[in-house]
Write a structure and sequence with these properties.
Helix content: 40-55%
Number of strands: 2
Shape: elongated
CATH superfamily of the largest domain: lambda repressor-like DNA-binding domains
CATH class of the largest domain: Mainly Alpha
CATH topology of the largest domain: 434 Repressor (Amino-terminal Domain)
CATH architecture of the largest domain: Orthogonal Bundle
Radius of gyration: 22 Å
Structural class: mainly alpha
Largest sheet: 2 strands, antiparallel
Strand content: under 5%
Order of helices and strands: HHHHHEE
Strand order of the largest sheet: 1-2
Mean pLDDT: 74
Length: 135
């Protein structure tokens, strides 16, 4: 864990883990597990009935309901949710990229970099056509 205060963290997961990838993965898995728990609550099924409908064992469903997050992958949780009839969608929120303040030099040519907070369909090219290939 880092030395940040709770107010400096984006989520409880980032407060627990310095590894942003792991924190994000845990955040997603916990959200999927909550959706499965809400399905069970709203359906009125017993754990046995729900586990049969979801194609998992009752102890496995109990692991979800008891928050045993380490026992499930995102893929597994998406598959379970799909069996409820839910449509799982992925939404990615990219950070806003700002225009660099300095010009980058490659092989004596100036490379102009452009970026904006516009949507992907309106984003300007990240390089100019006269850019030399590197590699």
């Amino acid at each position: 864990m880092g030395n940040k205060t709770m107010a400096e963290h984006k989520s409880v997961w980032s407060a627990l883990y310095d590894d942003m990838e792991q924190a994000e993965n845990l955040r997603i898995r916990s959200g999927l597990m909550i959706e499965i728990a809400e399905y069970l609550h709203e359906s009125g099924f017993t754990q046995k009935q729900a586990s049969e409908k979801l194609g998992i064992s009752q102890p496995r469903l109990s692991n979800i309901l008891n928050g045993k997050i380490d026992k499930f992958t995102i893929d597994t949780l998406v598959n379970i949710l799909a069996r409820t009839g839910a449509k799982v969608e992925i939404s990615v929120n990219q950070p806003v990229v700002t225009k660099p303040t300095k010009k980058s030099w490659v092989g004596g040519n100036i490379i102009k970099l452009f970026a904006s907070g516009k949507s992907n369909t309106q984003r300007e090219p990240i390089y100019t056509p006269d850019m030399v290939a590197i590699g």
